[in-house]
Structures are given as C-alpha cells and as structure tokens.
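Recap from last week: sequence in, structure out.
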Amino acid sequence: MSVQAPGAVVMVRPHHFTPNPATAADNRFQSLDPSREDARIAADAYDEVSAAAAALMGEGVRVHLFDDEDPARCDSVFPNNWFSTHAGGRVAVYPMYSPSRRTERRGDILEMLKGAYRVHEVVDYSGLEHDDAYLEGTGAMVLDHVGRVAYAARSHRTNPMVLERFCAQFGYDPMVFDACDESGEAIYHTNVMMAIGTGYALVALELVRSPTRRGQVRDALAATGREVLELTAEQVREFAGNAIELTTPTGRVLALSERAAASLTPQQREVVEDSCRLLPLRVPTIELAGGSVRCMLAGVHLTPRATTPVPEVRRALRAVP
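Predicted structure tokens:
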C-alpha cells in the first residue's frame, strides 16, 4: 500500500445534480449546458457517478457509495471538500465557504468510517464558519503524505490561519502560495492545479505568482524523489491537475477524467505510466460544476476493522447540523 495512494474512497451519487449558482462567482471552472434540461443533467450526472464507481470497483478499489436525494445539495458529489481521513485513525471535518454547501456534511458517512475503519478522533473545524474562516478539505489543500507538506493556494476557500491550525494538529508543514489563472483570478481550489502521486507530481507552476515561491514548491516536491511534471494553464482548464492516485490489488492507478487524460502530453503520460496506470473516467456532466474526478473521491487513509463488511451503497440520511 502506498502512503500517498489510498485503496478505498467515499463517493456521493447525487439525484439532483446541477452546477451551483451560489459558487459560480469564484469558481471559474464552472460552466453551463443550455442544450440539456435540468432533469437530463441530473440523470446524466447520476449515471456518470454510477459508472465511475463501477470502474473503480472493477479495479479493486473499495468504494463506499452514498446516495443523496436532497435537491438542496447540488454539489454533494464532491465530498472531499468537507472531510479527510488520515493514517493513525484521524478524521478532519472542514468549514465550507458557501452556506449552500454546509449541509453536505453527513453523520452517516462519519459513522460508516467509524464502523468500517479504526477511527480514534474526529477533529471538527466547521465551527470556524461563524468566524468567516474556511478550509475546504483536500480541495483547498493538496497533501503530500510522504513529505508531510500541505500545499495550498490562497483563496476565499483557503484561509491560511485555518490551514496552520490543521497542519499543527495533523503534522504537516504548510506551503501557501498565490495562484491565478490567465485572467488574473485566484485559483479557487488547489486540487485543480496540482496532484501528487507516489513517484511524480503534476503541478501548474506557471500559475504560481511569485517566482520565489514557484521554485520553493518545485524544490519541496523534488526533495521527496518525485519527478515534477509541469502542467500548462490550458491543461489545468482540462482538469489535468484534478486527479488522484489510488492503490489496487494489481498496482496503482491514476484516476482522472477522460478530458484530463487526453490533455496530457506523451512525455507526461510516459512518466506517470512508469509509476502507475492511467484510469480515465467519463464525467463531462460532473465537470460542469467546476470539479472533476479528484473532487469526487474522498480518499480513505484509515486501517480497516476486521469486522462484518459494511454495505458499500447507502442512502442519504440527515446532514450534520
């Protein structure tokens, strides 16, 4: 098992998916599809999540798939924004920037984790929403579990003080930087421009504003022995940075969207495939919401309990207040 690449994930299959108008102001990756009615978009998103979950399970990844039938939670397909799991039995719960997303936090998911895995502590930062301080999980942070560095692009959704608190409690060194797209707008989530695998890192260094910080990010990644693959701004728009490496019984895979995989250069693919296999997933409807495969998968870095298996597919229960 790779320290960086989990062998299990949590996914949420929405019944009422739609790009969230409440998050569009600072998420430049969102888009609309006027050719499809809302009901068709929701049905297509449901099918895409179902197919992605089946593909992952077919590779031997353990998938905990939760259904969400609440029409008010149009972004619930991205559970990695509200919780993360960590070796040693710890779970973090995060403060969300948009009030429209705060009911995505679900007690049934946390209870499943406690029942299926060894969880010793749940650290809940969600109360910081009352102080307008936000840190949207592994969207806001890209975690190097080997080098113990939390990379974070500063934005409305990534508060450096909350990041410092998380790092102090979970044993990471923070690496905060300013990153902007070609129009000068801040990158809303770090995981659209950066993905860290076991033997490589995909990162859009050209979007990091400070040349000094750009070099520090590169050096920190290279210090772990990884090959640093630079993404272009165009590849970031194709969600090439929104990928996650996973461990399967037959080796590691890099889960990413078909669109993202198609944007990689032959040289980039060669480096990645020296370390793992590419696993492209078809999620064009989900990508309308401004996120892709990495956002859909909340990795489980916990030790399984030797108990009766937990059902892999669950219906939505009430959200955590």
